[in-house]
# Entry
Amino acid sequence: MTEQNPVLDAPAIELRSDIRVELVDHAASDAGVVRAARVSTIGEDAHLEGKGEGYSAGLINYLMKSRHGSPFEHNYMTFLITAPIFTVRHLMRHRTWSFNEESARYRELRPVFYVPDSERLLRQEGKPGHYQYIRGTDEDHEQILSSAHAVYSKAYEEYTTMLESGIAREIARMVLPVATYSSVYATCNSRGLMHFLSLRTNRPDATYPSHPQREIELVAEQMEEAWKALMPITHAAFDTYGRVSP
# Structure
């Protein structure tokens, strides 16, 4: 989670840099993977499977290595994400997940907007498909803060003006930027999460290294930590076999 920027000198809006992920519900374990796999060979007794950790690790590693993916689907994790809208849209491209998002049709959105913190790489070099991101200067960061503050303040002013004049929320929201914070429940199983992590984390040791936008990577990193605690054997196998979803 990144540091939070102070509110700038405009009481109407808040600028933040943090992206929050909380595991709010789950039914996920390595034992569940083993039981789902074993039903193919021992049938209804699979739910009684009680072999030791060594056996579980061997079977889960075999499943991961051999790309037998379905046993990793018999679990779920529900996360609550608070992030800018453009990051939520990256998340929603993963269509095997289930989502419910805060709706600007039904509630007035708060004046909270995203800005990158001082650690965010700000400059882009290279051609499409071969980008490299490098650090910006202090002046670059100040320019972003100044421009963002001016645009967000004006956008929210126009948004509230329309609401106060009776314009419907679903119309008034169109002037708000995609940097507006939103909240979303996102539910997946471990197979879907592994696919998400393979694309939304930057790991040079992966079989297929990916280069996600940093904001969605912050979401992925927090999800991965929560999942690792729930299913450590499965997570270790995912790492061992190149971070490729089975």
